[in-house]
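Lecture 7 notes: from sequence to structure.

We start with a single chain of 95 residues. Read the sequence below before looking at the structure.
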Amino acid sequence: MQTLANELAADGYVAELVLLSDVNATDMTAYADLPTFRDPTGGRTAWAEMEPGAVKHDTFVYDATGTRTLFWDTSENSLNAWAANIRAAVIAAQP
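Now the structure, written as tokens:
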């Protein structure tokens, strides 16, 4: 994620990437340089509010107005395509 954030910034795109972690995600959040929202609930309440059934690695893209423009469902996509798909969604959401 940090690599994608750096690439987008270098190319002049305005984007803020934020990790959403549950209470058990200490391994990921320990080395991530991105802002992290820690869902303090054990039931992943924040995920459910954003998309019922959302799970780890699912990704959300919002535009500057706060409108969600993409829900990237990990179960329907390849993690190998994540960076390209999210980059395209961020670019498409630019004002």
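The chain has a mean pLDDT of 85. Keep this in mind for problem set 3.
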